[in-house]
Amino acid sequence: MTAVSAHAPQPPAETGLAASLTEVERQRILAKSALFAPPTGMLPDGRRDLVGLSREELTDALVAIGEKPFRTKQIWHWLYHQGVTDFARMSSIAKPLQAKLAERFVIGRPEATTVQTSNDETRKFLFRFRDGQEAETVYIPDRREDRGAVCISSQVGCTLSCTFCHTGTQKLVRNLGAAEIVGQFMAARDSYGEWPSPRGETPRLLSTIVLMGMGEPLYNYENVAKAMKIVMDGEGIGLSRRRITLSTSGVVPMMDQCGSELGINLAISLHAVRNDLRDEIVPLNRKYPIEELIAACRRYPAASNARRITFEYIMLRGVNDSEADARELVRLIAGIPAKVNLIPFNPWPGSDYRPSTREQLAKFAQIVMDAGFASPIRMPRGRDILAACGQLRTESQRERRSLPA
Ligand code: SF4
């Protein structure tokens, strides 16, 4: 029996008061997010980056230089289907217009300052943006097939300080802009030469996006949403919403909007099944406790038998890995179309946590599986290059600090 064949989830109706409180909270989150806004896409020389503009904004930019709106479709195709970075390669556009475009615009990419490939072929990119800020992106190939996931960052730093996460020790600097978010994926594809964008069901090497890198994507919702709409546009990169997963620590008020507006897959960094413990491990829980989080999962519009919600659970020895924890986990998520990813903890200097033993991992996984949920143990990838979960950016920061002033 699979979990999804159990009782169908019943979305709890939000009362009028609860709905308006959620709206107030949503507005507060969006206003706070604006305080960490990325720089504009304008270069010091007055040229504007075309990457990261919505179709409407691209049309406005072209009309502003005296071009007809139909050019949008043409240029969109060159940017996102062909992946060109030079106007001179837009062969369906006459040379004088190519030159005019090059005078007014650029086609930006983040600069890859470091690229490391792990023994297991995981590849980590340190990308530098125009203002010198940096974030990491990781490509994790599927070892059995020619495909793989690109793990993308949504913020420089993070506000959330989850205690098991080394990345979370770096405070939030700013949000990444839509151009920087989509740019990470495009630059990773440059590295593998995967242009033009494969159409339809044609296999792709960079076949899925997971918004699981540095930062909390639902605290930068507008830029993330804009970037994902660009990525999903069928005349460009054309990645299906089924191939995109957003991972959140549980920013409940933004989850409904994400589901209804983007319809992408959801992953929840759960990591504990009791509020007292989750308050400690994922401090955001003090604001949005487990009951609210699970209720938001039950009503998540894009979840179905075919598209399960992933519950991420980092296994910490003697902390959250008991059989009682496993039983409580399956009780909590009963009826949700879900799977549980069990993640062995990656120790890092300064952390007191230890990874669960193999035996405990196996016992925990068995209880979850017996309840009908898939519960793969996610073996850490790219450990040798610090590309595994929770390790992002830390090494690059350490290197920076050790440079002479
Ligand atoms: S797990 Fe994610 S949300 Fe939590 S501190 Fe790390 S990067 Fe931030």
Bound molecules: iron/sulfur cluster
Largest sheet: 9 strands, mixed
Structure annotation, total helices: 12
Give the topology string: H per helix, E per strand.
Answer: HEHHHEEEEEEEHEHEHEHHEHEHH
Radius of gyration: 22 Å
Dominant shape: globular
Question: What is the share of helical residues?
Answer: 25-40%
Mean pLDDT: 90
Distance between the termini: 61 Å
Query: How does CATH name the architecture of the largest domain?
Result: Alpha-Beta Barrel
CATH fold naming of the largest domain: TIM Barrel
Number of domains: 2
Spatial strand sequence of the major β-sheet:
3-4-5-6-9-10-11-12-13
Helix and strand content put the structural class at alpha/beta
CATH domain class of the largest domain? Alpha Beta
Strand residue percentage: 15-25%
Strands, count: 13
InterPro entries: Aldolase_TIM, Methyltransferase_A, RlmN_N, RNA_MTrfase_RlmN, rRNA_lsu_MTrfase_RlmN/Cfr, rSAM, rSAM_sf
Family: Belongs to the radical SAM superfamily. RlmN family.
Domain Radical SAM core: 144-383
EC number: 2.1.1.192
